[in-house]
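Technical annex, item 7. During the second reporting period the consortium partners agreed on a shared format for inverse folding records so that results from different sites could be compared directly. Each record opens with the tokenized structure and is followed by the designed sequence. A conforming record, contributed by the partner at site C, is shown below for reference.
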């Protein structure tokens, strides 16, 4: 009976990790496709990103049900309990990452076709790539219980913050010098802020992974004055 219970628990944990891996993969794809849609001004691809977000939401609900089942039936302890609780928190954060990608995609139809001529937009693809890589590495760290990789993700958050500050300054300057571009630049500022939030949430996942793997919390990160509280 004990062996059967352990096997069932292991299978449930594997299923849990598989669902989070799928959810994370979909969130990564949403980020990449949202940025491609922005660069190419591809409204069809942007619409697909918005539609695909429903599957991310569905996986979150499935994980929540599974976590409740595991806690109720298996009563995990110590490391196992930390893993299960981390999984529950992580899916909530990944769902928000998917929402940020969806928000970016929703802006694509609102941005004028001449936006690609704006110099500041050149920074956004690189910023999006770094944020996407952070999400990828944070989820890999969870799958492998890799505290070192999680820590590396946390340390990379400053790169995205620096990108955001640079984009913000560039867009504000551009708007002042070219008042006719204010509408387009405002949309791009919104996009940049969503990318910055993706980086913050990837960092949150990494912090959870670090705690699950080590039982220790990381020191409070320094935050810029321009950042708002977590939503």
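Designed sequence (site C submission):
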């Amino acid at each position: 009976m004990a062996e059967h219970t352990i096997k069932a628990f292991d299978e449930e944990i594997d299923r849990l990790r598989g669902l989070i891996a799928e959810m994370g993969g979909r969130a990564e794809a949403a980020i990449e496709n949202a940025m491609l849609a922005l660069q190419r001004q591809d409204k069809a691809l942007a619409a697909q990103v918005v539609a695909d977000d429903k599957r991310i939401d569905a996986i979150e609900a499935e994980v929540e049900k599974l976590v409740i089942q595991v806690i109720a039936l298996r009563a995990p302890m110590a490391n196992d309990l930390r893993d299960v609780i981390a999984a529950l928190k992580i899916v909530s954060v990944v769902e928000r990452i998917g929402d940020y990608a969806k928000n970016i995609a929703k802006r694509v139809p609102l941005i004028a076709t001449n936006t690609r001529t704006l110099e500041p937009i050149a920074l956004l693809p690189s910023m999006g790539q770094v944020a996407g890589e952070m999400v990828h590495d944070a989820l890999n760290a969870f799958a492998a219980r890799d505290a070192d990789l999680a820590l590396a993700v946390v340390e990379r958050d400053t790169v995205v913050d620096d990108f955001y500050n640079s984009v913000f300054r560039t867009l504000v300057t551009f708007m002042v010098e070219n008042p006719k571009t204010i509408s387009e630049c405002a949309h791009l500022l919104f996009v940049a802020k969503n990318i910055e939030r993706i980086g913050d949430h990837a960092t949150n996942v990494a912090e959870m992974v670090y705690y699950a793997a080590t039982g220790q919390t990381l020191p409070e990160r320094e935050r810029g004055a321009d950042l708002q509280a977590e939503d």
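The chain is about 80% helix and 0% strand. Residues 2-40 form the longest helix (39 residues). All partners now use this format for quarterly exchanges.
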